[in-house]
Amino acid sequence: MGGGAAGHGQASAAPPMDPAVLEHRREPRARVLPPRRGLQETATLPIPDELVAEIFLLLPPTDLVRASAACASFYRLVASRSFLRRFRKLHPPPLLGFLDDRVFHPVTPPYPSASAANAVALAADFSFSFLPGPARDWEVLDVRDGRVLLKRPGRQHPEMVVCDPLYRRYLLLPLFPDDLAASLEGPSAIKWRESFLVPAGDEEAATAEETSFRVIWMAQCKFRLFTFVFSSRTGQWGAVPSPSWSDLFAGLPSLEMATPLNTRQYAYGCFYWMAGYMAEAKMLVLDTWRMEFSVAESPPDGFAMAMVEAGEGRAGVFVHAHVGSKFSYSIRQNDGGSLSQWQEKKTVSLGYGYYIMGSTERYLFLYQLQSPLPNPGVFTLDVQTFQLERVCGQHLGHAYSNFPPSLLLSPTV
């Protein structure tokens, strides 16, 4: 019985426990603290729309599109006219592609605006089938701010139209009034002519309607330069005072007689043309805010050039040397007079095979013809960072910059 009693005592003892369970039991029990009232209230407070708007204003256009798609409240904020006006004043429209012979070539990944470019390519009609008459009759003259200027042959003067291919809207420009047409020296005296869109200045962009624009028509005659301006606000053409060549280039006998003008450039409200050749070359400047002509010193001579906006209201210029792979970058030094000097700031070496294709306010466009790489094409050089990025394949044409459709206020025409 004693053995039975002993056996019973062993049976009643606690069984050996798993070490993991013992370890778990040794852990101190966590104390549940009451929530701190101030922190809980702060975490649940919504961010005011005014603060969200200020944050969104700092985003680049492509990131803003993604942010607006996150929720309905973000989309309503971004889609408001007041926000879009502020955003478009702070950010230039991104490069979306190139327009060549009624064909749009969008930028390709990994370029930041590739997704927006694809959206525009699907939504817009770059064949211009919505214009009157056969689309093949229209020739693209200029592209700016989402608008396209085109012309087709006319009986006396070409017909011109400004359109918005994204919204398929257009405005046929009227012919020149008789008094302006009669002021020309005669059709046979016109040695060169061109038409182009005028960018809106900061003050003009802030006060003008989205559909307001201007078009300039210039004609180079034997003794004088003629300039007409069309305003969509008035629907009429007006004349800019036409200076004679002898007045423009006084004291420069080689430039006083119908000097050839080359390659229109733009920076900070002014258009520039090279006039003359080599050491005697000057720059003809048209201030679009005052609609006045002046003459400036030409940048260092080179094989090709393109102007950009260098900051602080100063124009910059990239010049490609006649031989080699170097591009010099100079900034115009304003001295208070009509003639200003150019100061070289930087030399950029990119290797052989790069050629200047054009420019916008911030970017230099380069076309790479000869390359050991398997995919040569169009590149951009950022004037602020000097970073080189591939944009798309081997496509030339007019650069098309615009905001994605979701960031547009309304049609531009």
TrEMBL record:
The lineage of its organism: Eukaryota, Viridiplantae, Streptophyta, Embryophyta, Tracheophyta. PANTHER family: F-BOX DOMAIN-CONTAINING PROTEIN, OS07G0554500 PROTEIN-RELATED. Residues 41-90 form the F-box domain. Signal peptide: none annotated. This is F-box domain-containing protein. InterPro entries: F-box-like_dom_sf (IPR036047), F-box_dom (IPR001810). It comes from Triticum aestivum (Wheat).
